[in-house]
Amino acid sequence: MRIYKLMAPCHFGLEAVLKREIIDLGYDVISVEDGRVTFEGDIEAICRANVFLRTAERILIVAGRFKAETYDELFEATKAIEWEEFIPVNGKFWVTKASSVKSKLFSPKDIQSIVKKAMVERLKEVYGISWFSEDGASYPLRVFMFKDEAIMGIDTSGDSLHKRGYRLLSSKAPISETLAAALIMITPWNKDRILVDPFCGSGTFPIEAALIATNTAPGMNREFMAEQWKNFIPKKEWYEVISEAHDLINTDIKTDIQGYDIDNDMVKIARKNAELAGVDKFIHFQCRDVKDLSHNKKYGFLITNPPYGERLEEKKDLPALYRTIGEVYKKLEDWSAFIISSYDNVENDMGLKSTKNRKIYNGMIKTYYYQFMGAKPPKQNRQEKLS
To answer: Which of 18, 87, 152, 369 is geometrically suited to a Cys-Cys bond with 64, CB 3.0 to 4.6 A?
Structure first.
């Protein structure tokens, strides 16, 4: 079976998390670059990566990668790619997105136009026709230009992989599912440790934690663009991967995952989303102000995305809010806290110095993931399940 180069874009700053996921899934990583990881895999890998990867934004087949400093070079190199291996005579194909960074070819619109023309010319010659009906399955292409190198990626996912299918309703500024999963996976948390999100909004952190705890594949309940590609990926490949995902789910667990929000309507939405994700019985949601947060058990995890301007009327409220978070956290014995925020004075207002922090882009917003590490539980306690 043919081995393909596959590319998985991700949030900037979280490439190492995605790399580990891909390796754990059994595939060889070729390269790690800003915002993407490239790996090798067969047709089954395309299906498994879409269904199982928690932190990838989408899965692309790398159809070509080459230098292009002029539009003529872009046209000729694109035309030389064997597009017929992927796109049938009635396939619908277009450049859904083009981006350019530090390249002589800087106009996304022109790049899209030239690439489409080159693909048409190639397929006209191969299929011996002058007009394409494009009434079959869709084969969208994404083009990345970086330092005059072009990467041609055929999108197998369609909708971004953060769209798991469970979040029908959301808060005003929700954190994406893929980002939430990555931020949880950075931490030492596991299903035997308490996890609390005191600003849960539509429930993304608790739900992603519950999916991880039960080993539920994030892409089980959604569709993918490549499912239409009957000329390329047999339907049975998808059936077998979904069957594998079902077999790996473990709901015979005890875990303590909690989500709180001051807005009761958001709590109701979070509960509904958890139900749609099939993990509602593993999460306790409650309407509660962060100032009332307490827990009598040790060694828990506070993982949260507090308001940092978008969900509050005015930024002047932020110092008091983060002071409250700091006061509450200090009362939680031997807990660890992980807070993502674009607010500049998190540590100052909490009255705590983070163990470490890392820069992460949440969409176009530069944020920092502050990590306040608590004491590790004794070894024997770590081996005990929550009662």
So the answer is: 152
Residues 28, 49 contacting (CB under 8 angstroms): no
Give me the residues paired with residue 64 across strands.
152
Give the model's pLDDT for residue 386: 53
Give the helix ranges, DSSP H, for the chain. Answer: 15-24, 43-52, 71-79, 108-127, 177-186, 204-213, 235-248, 264-277, 318-330, 346-350, 379-382
SS3 of 323, please?
helix
Sorted by where each begins, the domain ranges of the chain are: 4-155, 177-215+248-382
CB 328 within 8 A of CB 351: no
Using one digit for the tens of pLDDT, what is the confidence trace for 269-283? 999 999 999 999 999
The mean predicted confidence, pLDDT, of the chain is 94
Buried b (16+ CB within 10 A) or exposed e, 75-84: bebbbebebe
Give the DSSP letter string of 165-194.
S--SS--SSPPPHHHHHHHHHHS---TTS-
Instruction: Tell me the CATH number for domain 4-155.
Output: 3.30.2130.30
> Pairing mode, if any, of strands 257-261 and 283-287?
parallel
% of the chain beyond a pLDDT of 90? 89
Burial of 204 (0-12, 13-18, 19+ CB in 10 A): buried
Residue closest to 147 by CA, chosen among 101, 99, 114: 101
Region 177-215+248-382: CATH code: 3.40.50.150
Long-range CB pairs of 363-366, under 8 A, 24+ apart, other chains included: 366/342
DSSP tally for the chain: helices H, then strands E:
11, 14
Q: What are phi and psi of 106, to 5 degrees?
A: -115, -5
Give the tens place of pLDDT for each residue, 289-348: 999 999 999 999 999 999 866 544 567 889 999 999 999 999 999 999 999 999 989 999
Helices 204-213 and 177-186, axial angle in degrees (round to 10): 60
Instruction: Using alpha carbons only, give the angle 18, 277, 222 rounded to the nearest 5 degrees.
Output: 65
Percent of the chain as helix, strand, coil, to the nearest 5:
35, 25, 40
Here the tokens at position 76 are 């000729």
- What is the identity of the amino acid at 251? T
Whether the pLDDT of residue 249 is over 80: the answer is yes
